[in-house]
Amino acid sequence: MESEQCHSRFGRPLVTFAGEDLGHGRDRQGRLDSVVLPGLTLTLQVGERVALLGQSGSGKSTLLVELRARLGRQAAWCPQHHGLVPTLAVYHNIFMGRLPEHSTLAGLWNLIRPLARPWREVGELCALLGLEGLERRPVGQLSGGQRQRVAIGRALYQGRDLFLGDEPVASVDPHQALRLLALIDERHTTSVVALHQRELALTHFDRVWGLRDGRLVINATASELTLADLDALYPDAEAPVSSLGEEALPAMPGPEALPCARGRP
């Protein structure tokens, strides 16, 4: 299912795949050792909010990693398994989003005594993320949902125009997910977010990319799609399950009960 009509209202193409194979590893001749997404044709444009759906193993992470490689420092990155340092405080983990902007000496000093401006900036971000008062707490002492918010905070702190997230709201309840996605929207002009909450894909995104068995089978505006269309991406289950293996979260309200999405009636 494909529709490119809405692309005209967005900006220039950021990344284009024209019948390309995506996968892992390369041999001496530059050929992929393992092809995950064969013959992918796809374009991401400036200003798009894209929900990326599909079962575990369908190629979502492979696509996000390739987008990250091609976009480089244009994109903030929030990985599926957080990539946090458990022994460091919330503050330090979020600060690492801008670590390359500081000298080695400043970075070392910041470990001992937080720099005034970053401390204030991270504190303001923690308040928005529901982490106020936890800045000095080691990440290893936080809950799964709190760690996920720290990972989002680190990505937001990078201050990039684009956001790439591999299931960044998988470990939080539906109401927190709505708040976090709104915060991501406020701070980024373009985003590609892998999800397992189909309702959010229809209500909070302009476009949906759906992967099944290593193939792009949905590339359409959210307003064109229904939950039944998205169900076809998950033939082996009644509903998609988080690949993080978290405990079941409260049910997400249907699309009609959620705030009106960008571009949806």
In short:
The chain has helices at 60-71, 90-95, 104-112, 116-128, 144-157, 174-187, 198-203, 227-231; strands at 13-26, 32-45, 49-53, 75-78, 162-166, 190-194, 207-212, 215-221. The chain is an alpha/beta fold. It has a domain at 5-83 and 162-257: P-loop containing nucleotide triphosphate hydrolases (Rossmann fold, 3-Layer(aba) Sandwich), CATH 3.40.50.
Outline the fold blueprint.
Layout (H helix, E strand, L loop, with lengths): L12 E14 L5 E14 L3 E5 L6 H12 L3 E4 L11 H6 L8 H9 L3 H13 L15 H14 L4 E5 L7 H14 L2 E5 L3 H6 L3 E6 L2 E7 L5 H5 L34
Question: What can you see in these coordinates?
Answer:
The model is unreliable at about 1-5 and about 240-260 (pLDDT under 50). The protein has a domain at about 5-85 and about 160-255: P-loop containing nucleotide triphosphate hydrolases (Rossmann fold). The strands form 2 sheets. It has a 6-stranded mixed β-sheet, with helices on both faces. A two-stranded antiparallel sheet has the order 1-2. Helix 4 crosses helix 5 (about 145-155). It has 8 helices and 8 strands, in the order E-E-E-H-E-H-H-H-H-E-H-E-H-E-E-H. With about 260 residues, the protein is α/β, with parallel strands linked by helices. The radius of gyration is 19 Å and the shape is globular. A hairpin with a 2-residue loop joins strand 7 (about 205-210) and strand 8. The two termini are about 20 Å apart.
